[in-house]
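dude i think i finally got it to work??
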Amino acid sequence: MFPPDRLALVERYVGWLAGAGTERGLIGPREVARLWDRHVLNSAVVGEWVPEGARVADIGSGAGLPGLVLALARPDLEVTLVEPLLRRTTFLREVVADLDVPVRVVRARAEELHGAESFDVVTSRAVAPLDRLAGWCMPLVAAGGAMVALKGSSAADEVELHREELARHGTDAPEVRALGAGVLASPTWAVRVSWAGSPQVSWRLARDARPRGQRAQRRPSPGGRRRGKGSR
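look at this
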């Protein structure tokens, strides 16, 4: 899964995960024995769904999974790690500097990049439910690109749960695939979502772009005042 000249870098990265990553709480102590199969190789197979030379953003990158692994496995990619927490971005910057790989680390929430940046592929791993995750990631997806979210074996059920919601926001039908099947003992289940039409830089704009006749009509409560906790 890795070029021969990159294997030493991957081993060094695993050393970071087992050492500082565990000490700083980015990796659980019980995960150390499973770093290769459960985390590193599990992330590397995402490359099956990433085209050559793509610009990739990894949202909520944490310890660099899957974004940094993709950068090590695929030198052709332009990778940006997006993470809001200082201790995690500090770790990522230290690792990137030590490995001397051309990976950008951005301390921010995904929403802060909406309208400012776009990518061919936006990845994530165990960050949030699919509907909320799409609201963060899809506005960063460029024309012809896709969100690729690593999920568990229940990925298909999650897609069915949120399929209509995603479609209302202007996405194409989600795809579910077992990445690394025949290579890994336990394949990585992932969901791929792309835009059905032109990309939207705001999830709300994508939702409100529906024809007026299709928008839900709000009825004021008696007396002309709206009630309820979420009323405006």
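Residues 96 and 103 are 7 Å apart (CA to CA).
im so relieved honestly
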